[in-house]
Amino acid sequence: MKSKNYKRFIKDKPRTACGIFGIFDHPQASVITYYGLHSLQHRGQEASGIVSCEYREDKKRFHFNLLKGMGLVTDVFKDYNSLKDLLKGRSAIGHNRYSTTGSANNEKNIQPLIVNYRNGNLGVAHNGNLTNFRTIRKQLQDEGTIFQTTSDTELLLHLIARSKQKNQIDQIKEAIDKVEGAYSLVILTDSMLVAARDPYGFRPLALGEKDGCYVVASETCAFDIIDAKYIRDIEPGEILVIDKRVDSKEQLTSLRVEKKIPESHHCIFEYIYFSRPDSFIFGESVDKVRRKLGKSLAQESPVHPDSEEKTIVISVPDSSNTSALGFVTESIKQGINTKLELGLIRNHYVGRTFIQPEQGMREMKVKTKFNTVKGVLKGKKVVVVDDSIVRGTTSKQLVKLLKEAGPKEIHFRITSPPIVNSCYYGMDFPNKEDLIAVKCNEDVEKIRQELGVDSIQFLSVKKMLASVPSGERKGYCTACFGGTYPAPIEDVIDKNDLEA
User: Residues 476, 196, 488, 179: what is their CA dihedral angle, to the nearest 10 degrees?
Assistant: First the structure.
């Protein structure tokens, strides 16, 4: 039986909360949602779900069809007929889950969550974390509300259903105004699709168009697979209502949450690690930003060869691939004899159901995911470019694996600063005391010794912020790197206590 610590061991990279997708009034709504979720698989691999809205002529009413389950998108939706026959309807929302609030093993927590109340059917899919979750949940429980899940997302359904407002849009807006923290939402009703972002703009959410119909998704890579055109981002603090006029033409109605924030606080880790490099988030190409982060890292912490032989630069596939390209480009520009090589090969077929090694064989976890190209590394001065180090357990094993290939030296270069705080806005970091930077008292030399490398350098906060897009009202959350928490957080304690 695996211990609680073992579960922590296998989570040595930051994880994002979820990926969400929605489409309004399209004849193949569920199929398009399936493909959208397939492109957003990197944002959550624990569970997946789709709910569609169908008008049943025989009963003269709308009906919600739901299919969800544990596993990857291709695991849950194995049969095309389930999309075509079970998930009928012209509108749909979908969700890929990685749990941050609520038990990962509780199937009731799988989204989208749906209810039927006095105004009809209602479904919601959520990316982020509600930071006043406990307060609102206790208030509702004290008033007699019965919860079916341990997820913070369920709060929104209860708040909407209990609203005294008569108009459904007003009910949704009132509920959203009551919650705090990080939320990108898609909400499906009998007659409309609603997309909303918190006023801080922590998580991305984009609006697109396909075949004259509106689509929304966490990242624009979900638009590419379905040949949808990117229109714009849902703005921080915006509640966007997509519905029909009498003449059957779709319209957009933009509302604002009550809370006003002078500057957005986008999660900077979306650029560093989470999002796919082929996506546009927060109005900018992720690939372009990651290359710039790599260039900035080379400017701050170059690695010079000892002789005429080139220094070999490798990435830790796949999230740091483009950062490594930027690092090499800038190194060559500085006149440093550097060469990009494929020193690590990633096995992409290790899924969530892969048999986990026993406690005494932890190094097998890395070997099932990576293998070295020994001819590239043997006898060379090697620079490993990675996006982040959380606990350091995987990095230590990666160093051990690299040393088996016989390099002369190993130098780590990280395109983010040391992580010194937990996140409460949708990233699953461990508790603060489990972070390697905290364990080593934020001493880079101690981190170097702990990992067993010849040198290690992190990108500075100042240089990181100079590498990401800036502009009017565009700011970033850097709480995990020692900055302030922009949104209020209640009872900052062990996040594992949130799970049932």
Answer: 180
Specify whether 245 is located in the same domain as 312: no
Residues of the chain with pLDDT under 70: 1-17, 99-105, 245-250, 350-363, 472, 491-500
pLDDT for the residue numbered 286: 97
Burial of 291 (0-12, 13-18, 19+ CB in 10 A): buried
Q: Which residue in 267, 274, 291, 266 sits closest to 221, CA to CA?
A: 274
Q: With respect to residue 495, please indicate whether it lies within any of the assigned structural domains.
A: no
Active-site residue among 18, 213, 267, 477? 18
Residue type for position 291: R
Q: Which residues pair with 385 in a beta bridge?
A: 315, 413
Question: Could you give phi then psi for residue 289, rounded to 5 degrees?
Answer: -65, -45
DSSP 270: I
Q: What is the DSSP letter of 245?
A: -
Backbone angles phi, psi at 55, to 5 degrees: -95, 120
Q: Which two tokens stand for residue 393?
A: 């357990």
Burial classification of residue 286, based on how many CB atoms lie within 10 Å of its CB (0-12 exposed, 13-18 middle, 19 or more buried) = buried
Closest CA to 282 of 269, 294, 300, 295: 269
Specify the CATH number for the domain of residue 228: 3.60.20.10
Does 282 fall in a domain?
no
CB neighbour list of residue 467: distance below 8 Å, 6 or more residues apart: 289, 292, 293, 295, 296, 459
Angle at the Cα of 405 (from 404 to 409), degrees rounded to 5? 95
Q: Which amino acid is at 110?
A: I
Q: For residue 47, what are the CA distances in angstroms to 108, 112, 255, 278? A: 11, 11, 31, 23
271 in Cβ contact with 281 (< 8 Å): yes
pLDDT of residue 17: 59
pLDDT value, residue 105: 65
Structurally, the chain folds into a number of domains equal to: 2
Q: What is the radius of gyration, based on Cα positions, of the chain?
A: 23
Phi-psi region of 139 (alpha: psi -120 to 50; beta: other; left: phi over 0): alpha
Sequence-distant (6+) residues with CB within 8 A of 124 are 93, 111, 112, 113, 114, 153, 156, 157, 185, 186, 187, 188
- Please state, in angstroms and rounded to a whole number, the distance separating the CA atoms of residues 378 and 315: 16
Same domain? For 162 and 104 the reply is yes
Range of the domain at 76: 11-261
Residue 390: name the closest of 15, 16, 12, 98 by CA. Answer: 12
Which three-class secondary structure state does DSSP give residue 249?
A: coil
**Global confidence as pTM:** 0.91
18 is catalytic: yes
